[in-house]
Fold this sequence. Notes:
By secondary structure, the chain is an alpha/beta fold. Helix content is about 50%, strand content about 10%. The chain has helices at about 10, 45-55, 75-90, 100-115, 120-125, 145-160, 180-185, 200-210, 220-225, 230-250, 255-275; strands at about 65-70, 95-100, 130-135, 160-165, 190.
Amino acid sequence: MLPLIxxxxxxxxxxxxxxxxxxxxxxxxxxxxxxxxxxxEGERNRMARSCAFAIAEKPGDTMYNPFIVYSPIGFGKTHxxxxxxxxxxxxxxxxxxxxxxxxxxxxxFTQSVINNRKEDFFNFxxxxxxxxxDDIQCLSGKEKTQQALLSIFDQLYHAxxxxxxxxxxxxxxxxxxxxxxISRFGYGLTVCINKPDYETxxxxxxxxxxxxxxxxxxxxxxxxxxxVDSDVRSLExxxxxxxxxxxxxxxxxxxxxxxTTIDKLFNQKKKEEIK
Length: 275
């Protein structure tokens, strides 16, 4: 006697295998706090901010294409290009604007190759009206991904669609890049954000204090702005450390407490550098 074999309806009519579509991938979310209003303008970032604002006001209608923001880490380039993105999606929602970081771009391209979905990848990006890519220095040595970006760049550029990029290495000094990409980076405008001066650092601290809705004496903020003169990220981080120490020790922040806390922080960093 033959064994009884039960075949379910699902097995008789199997669902077609679903392929991962790049269209299902979400673009990297931008920090909604990173706006032009929260970006503190100073002598050393004024040109970058002015050009970025002009692009956000009239996408594709300026001569700044591509528009590339260069600065060392922690000087505000990501804040600025995200400010462009946030302004456009709020004020011009009909414009298809994409914001992506280079590492995610690499992952998406690799995934599209594995899943035989390269056409989806190109359609996704080439259909955008405004493309913003952060940290393009991370594409170094990724030849296939660079070739993909080159194709996307050409299609968007010739269609007069806006391209914005940010990098921590000056475009002409990027190593491991296709010569064609380096050449195209020079089509538009590259602006530099330099280390913030004392006045800008002080305004950044005041902005953070207002945002956190706390009160710290100006003399303490002035001391912080004077001592922490490296980059915006370190400046804001030092303020957070000061607030955390005051909260843990249940202390009011006066000048002596602030000096002691900062000196301890600096000494700790020096020890870590020595190690």
